[in-house]
Every structure is written in structure tokens, then in C-alpha cells.
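Researcher: Please translate sequence to C-alpha cells.
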Amino acid sequence: MKIRRKTPAVKIGSVSMGQGHPVVVQSMTNTPTADQEATYQQTVELIEAGSEMVRWTINDDKAASAAPEIIGRLRAAGYATPIIGDFHFNGHILLGKNEACAKALDKYRINPGNVGKGERHDNNFAQIIKIAIEHDKAVRIGVNWGSLDQELLAELMDQNAQHNEPKELQEVMYAVMIQSALTSAACAEKIGLKKDKIVLSVKMSVLQDMVTVYARLAQQCDYALHLGLTEAGGDIQGVSASSAALAILLQQGIGDTIRVSLTPQPNVKRAREVEVCKALLQSLGLRYFAPSVTSCPGCGRTSSTYFQELAQDITTYIQQNMPIWKKQYPGVEKLKVAVMGCVVNGPGESRHADIGISLPGTSEQPIAPVYADGHQMITLKGKKIKEEFTNILEEYIQKRYSQ
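Model: Translation complete:
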């Protein structure tokens, strides 16, 4: 694992990022912000799942008026999670007209490709930055290749066409993305926004393009970076593409906050994208949120489904108990548990875990040795293995992590 890239510490409400702080998980609601009840409920769902910042669409006066009301309700309920306002096209107008909204939000997100053209672009951008300075707010300058600054794109395309050996369109796009972000950040600093109030992002929807442009941007600046693969899709495609893209950059020490953007699916909670972020960070060893359960994929040796059921039951047991455990047992989130299904890798994986059980596979002797801290502690058998192992796990946690 490479050392994290050095950036200024950025304070956003109750959350700090950059300068060695843990990578921050964030997400975005897909409710109309003007619908106060729906937005409140989904925001709470995301926070409870582990989102450390939540972004809302602020697209009209109704949304801008609703924002401080919902934030007030969240704070009254004890939720300190920073709320980000996402502005496109009319952010300068909405923030100027709705001072309560400008004060209540913890951060503004603006896209330099969507703040107007020509002189209006510069004036509108400057107006948002001045409001951020007035209210001491952070700003994410979020460039997206689906809504690039068309004037900058045309300028760089014209310059490229005049070269003896013009670059490919893809290279020009990379340059536009990076220049748009850096020029906008420099402009914000010139207006008076401090560097530790600026976050940049350069989102693209093709994995290799996204990785390339972020890696190049990271080499050219030390601003805090928000990572995300935009329009990643849903279900397996969205999870795998986003995880792969973010992992490549995070492994290089690039990235201070992340979001996995998943296309909504029927009967799938919005919080799934938060769960993916947490699982990704824990897989990389960057953060720990709950004990991990190592379990085998099954094979011809494991015709019984008992080990699958036990692995799921233990995972569920951990999830249900974590709200209590994290208060009572500091450090329990780093616990490694193994639930294995046969003798091939079962004993070895169980020894490598903090605590593990190796269930019998097909034709194996019907016993289940339990290992703790690398040593076999007991052998279970019979019909109550799940209950007995659960009790052993609880006792192990109490003994190891009690203050």
C-alpha cells in the first residue's frame, strides 16, 4: 500500500478529510429535496448505513427552502452528518436568494460546465464562491465529462488541430477535464476561497479514462480529491466497475472521499452504495467498520449447505450486534472470523483468523474444530454447533475487547 497523497486538511461540518484523515464515505439522495419527509427519511437511511456526508439536489426555490428545514430536523434528531448542496445552472441565483439554505448547507458542489457561458460563466462562478466565503463553506468543483465546459473544449480542440501532430480526441478530453478543474480552483482561490475549502473531482464513466484523468490530476495539484465513477450502472456492473476504478486509485494513495454511484433498482435500498464503499475500504485495509467473515465458496466436497447457512448467520449476528459492540468493545471492527466448509483450507483459514470454525465437508468426520488466536480451543459436534459457536464468539469478543 502506497502512502496517502498529501493534501490540506478540509473541514466540512463535523467531518475532516485530507491530510492523513481516513477516506470519507459519501452518498446522494435521489428524492426531490422539496419533498421534506422523503428526503429526511432517505438521508437518515444513508447516515445509519454509514454515509459520512450526504448530498442533496438543490435545483429550485422549493428545494432551497426545504433544505434548512430538513437540516434543522436532522440536527434536532442528533444527526451531525454534513449535508452538501448539489447545484447546476442556477446555483448562484438560488444561493443568493435563499440565505438560510446557504447558511445551513455544509458544502456546495458546483460543476464549472454548468454555470453559464462567457462572461456569465465567470460572474456566476464568482458569485457562488463569494457566498461560500461569506458563510465559511467548502466547495467541491466537480467536473464531469458529460457536461464539460464547451468553450474550453472548443478552445483546446482548436489548439490541438493546429499542431503538426494532433493528439487523439481522448487525450484532449483528459486535458479539458484537468484544466477545467485546476483553472476553476485557481479562480476560486484568487477570489478568496482558501485551499483547505476546495475539493476537486473529475468524474468519467469509462473506468480506464477515469483512472487516467484522476492520476494525472493528482500529479498536478495537492487539492483534496473526491473519487467516483459516474454513470457506473446498477447491480453487478455498477458495483464491480466502481470498486475496480476506486481501488486502483486508492491503492496509489489517491482519494480523500469516495462515492459509489449505482443506478437505483426496485426493492434495493439507496444505502447499498454506502455498503459497497465500506466493503471496498475494508477490503483495501484503509478503514474497518465491522468484523470480517472469511468463508469458502463451496465445492464438491461441501454438498451440505450448513456452512453456507452458518456463514450467513454469523454475518447477520455481527451486523445486528455492531451498534452495541462498537460502543462496548473498541477495536472489534478489526476482528477476523472464519467459517469454513471442509478440511482442505478450513483449518488453515481458521488459524489465520482471530477466531474460526472448520465445518466437516462431505465424507469427513462430523466434527468442527474451533480455533482462536492460531490455536485449536475446542471441537464441536452435534446439532447445536451454530448456537455453541455463536456463544464462543461472543465470549471471545468480551474477553479480548472489553475495556
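Researcher: Any highlights?
Model: The two ends are 31 Å apart (CA to CA).
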